[in-house]
């Protein structure tokens, strides 16, 4: 089934959203995307409240969900070690939290952690800027992925016209094994030319139809 829920009858998803997995084909490359919205931090002690260290009762459920997702991704990588997997969403926890650590666990890299610490925030709670939204990719994609957080919401109020209380996280993934220049260059030989402005077979007028960023 594509798309499909992951283990939707599992009781760990009681009172929270179930992950949705879908497989896409982008320029000939298969990509599996798993969208999530983990249970909220409602009921937890505030980070800088009277109780220290704070009691984080809601974390228990997020850790169990993260463990299930990590097992699911591990199963995909066992079948195909080069499978392109992206896990994303409002995970309602920080990049250094136990739930994110369990979610990564040898399978995934959290691209938020590649950003400077001062840029790692997607939400503001009681004056504390923090990351709750994440994009993780298969480890073999990490060096081919660039991340950014667009702070268009968390710094503002509803009166300012913000669209959400969370900021979007974006990634750009190069799916050609890190190779951004097409290896099959145009040339004088008929085997490398077609009728389209001399571009090699498979290219359109913009030079991008082969799936690479650019070609000569």
From TrEMBL:
What are the protein's GO molecular function terms? Answer: catalytic activity
Endonuclease/exonuclease/phosphatase domain sequence ranges: 8-146
Q: Which domain of life is it from?
A: Bacteria
Species this chain originates from: Mesobacillus boroniphilus JCM 21738
Which residues lie within the region annotated Disordered?
178-216
Here the segments flagged for biased composition (Basic and acidic residues) are 192-201
Q: Any idea what this protein is called?
A: Endonuclease/exonuclease/phosphatase domain-containing protein
- InterPro entries for the chain: Endo/exonu/phosph_ase_sf, Endo/exonuclease/phosphatase
Show the Pfam families listed in the entry.
Exo_endo_phos_3
